[in-house]
Write a structure and sequence with these properties.
This protein is about 35% helix and about 25% strand. By secondary structure, it is α+β, with helices and mostly antiparallel strands. It starts with 7 loop residues before the first strand and ends with a helix.
């Protein structure tokens, strides 16, 4: 049976952040931790070995595949900070125009450091993501 790698666990969020080598990324991670908790109202939880997630939802695809995922999250990775936000949409793209220096994929936005972005826009993106997933998956 399929066992997802990314699932909520009891690893310590603070211990994970303390393990980040770059002092600047570590400081940014603590700032993000505070910002995500403030905006979502959820306590941070580790998802898999390296994602800090907030809240959760249960998804089920037409294929029958189902599982749980954090509503929003981030990970202070070596190269860049990964922000796990809502999938590509017109609304997300409009917000990202005001966001600052970043790159993106379908579900992630990547930043080098918090000083490169507008944290007010990040708050909007977090709120949009939580609302999007709570509307799509209202069962949790």
């Amino acid at each position: 049976m399929y066992e997802p790698k990314m699932k909520e666990n009891d690893y310590s969020v603070k211990e994970f952040i303390e393990s980040v080598e770059s002092e600047k990324k570590k400081a940014d991670a603590y700032q993000l931790l505070e910002l995500f908790e403030e905006v979502t109202g959820y306590d941070a939880k580790m998802w898999g070995p390296s994602i800090i997630g907030f809240g959760s939802y249960h998804y089920k695809y037409a294929s029958g595949h189902e599982g749980d995922a954090p509503l929003v999250g981030f990970s202070p990775r070596k190269a860049k900070i990964s922000l796990y936000l809502a999938y590509e949409s017109e609304k997300r793209e409009k917000m990202l125009e005001r966001f600052g220096k970043h790159s993106k994929s379908k579900a992630c936005v990547y930043v080098n450091k918090l000083a490169d972005i507008d944290t007010r826009v990040l708050k909007e993106l977090i709120e949009h993501t939580v609302e999007t997933y709570q509307n799509l998956y209202p069962n949790k």
